[in-house]
C-alpha cells in the first residue's frame, strides 16, 4: 500500500511538472521606446528535451490586451501541450490595428509584432528560427493583424489566419480608432486603401502561405470574411475557410482557436516532412 501511494504521488508530481507554463515578459520596443508586455505559453515538454518548437503568434482584438487570451480562453495552455508548440500573445494596444502609424510614432505595432517580439522570442526560447516554424493569427482587430502581417511579412511567417476578422478597415471610419492610426481619409488615402487586408491579399507572396479564415454566421462583420474568401477564390489563393454558428464573442473564439491551432500544427508537420 505504501509503495502504491508513493507511486501515485510520483505520477501526480510528474504530471504537475509536465504541464504548460505561462510566462509574462516585458519586451522593449526600440521603435516605440518602451517596454510592452507579452504572454508566452510553453508546452508541457519544454525544458525536458532539446527540441525546438514552432511558434503561433496569437493577437487580441480592439479594446483588448496581451492577457486577453490566457484569461478568457485559458485552455490555450492545453492547446500548447496537445500540439507541442509555443503560443505567444503580444500586446497590440487597445486600438493599434497592428499598423505602423504614419502619424503617431507611439503606435508602431506592425514593427513590434512582426519583428521585435519574434526577435525576443527567438533569442530567449527554443524556437524554430525559420519562417517554416512561425504562424500568426488573431480575433477581430487581431484577425486583421494576423492577415495583414502574415501577407506583408510572408518571408518571415509561413502561415496566417483570422478569427472574426475586421478585414476591411477602409469602411471603419469612425468608432474604432482607425482614423487615429492612419490619419485623415483624404490626406492619407493611400494608407487607407493599401493597408486594408482586402487590398493586401492581392499581393500573394512567392513563398507559399498557409491561410485559415473563419467567422460565425451570426457575426455582425461576417461579410468581411466572406468578401476576403471570395476574393482569394477569385485570385486562386489557396486557403481554408470556415463558417459555423456563432457571434462576435468569446464563446465563438473559445472554439475557433482550437480549429486554428490544429490547422497550424498540420501545416508545421507538412513543412517539416518536405524539408
Summarize the structure.
The chain is 40% helix and 18% strand. With 275 residues, it is of the alpha/beta class. The termini are far apart.
List keywords for this structure.
275 residues; alpha/beta; Rossmann fold; 8-stranded mixed sheet; 10 helices; 8 strands; disordered N terminus
Question: How would you characterize this protein structure?
Answer:
There is one protein chain. By secondary structure, the chain is of the alpha/beta class. It has a single domain (20-274), classed as 3-Layer(aba) Sandwich (Rossmann fold), CATH 3.40.50. The protein contains ten helices and eight strands. It has helices spanning 2-17, 68-72, 76-83, 109-124, 141-152, 178-182, 189-194, 197-200, 222-234, 250-274, and strands at residues 21-29, 34-42, 55-59, 86-90, 134-138, 159-163, 210-216, 240-244. The protein is globular, with a radius of gyration of 19 Å. The N and C termini lie far apart (51 Å). Residues 1-16 have low confidence and may be disordered.
CATH architecture: 3-Layer(aba) Sandwich
Estimate the helix proportion, in percent. 40-55%
Mean pLDDT across every amino acid position: 93
Largest sheet: 8 strands, mixed
Outline = globular
Q: Over all CA atoms, what is the radius of gyration?
A: 19 Å
Portion in beta strands: 15-25%
How many strands? 8
At the fourth level of CATH, the homologous superfamily is Alpha/Beta hydrolase fold, catalytic domain
CATH topology: Rossmann fold
Distance between the termini: 51 Å
How many helices in DSSP terms? 10
The H/E string reads HEEEHHEHEHEHHHEHEH
What structural category characterises the helix and strand content? Answer: alpha/beta
Count of domains: 1
Report the CATH C-level class: Alpha Beta
With strands numbered from the N-terminus, the spatial order across the biggest sheet is: 1-2-4-3-5-6-7-8
List low-pLDDT spans: 1-16
Signal peptide: 1-19
InterPro entries: AB_hydrolase_fold, Esterase-like, Mycobacterial_A85_antigen
Keywords: Hydrolase, Signal
GO molecular function: acyltransferase activity, transferring groups other than amino-acyl groups; hydrolase activity
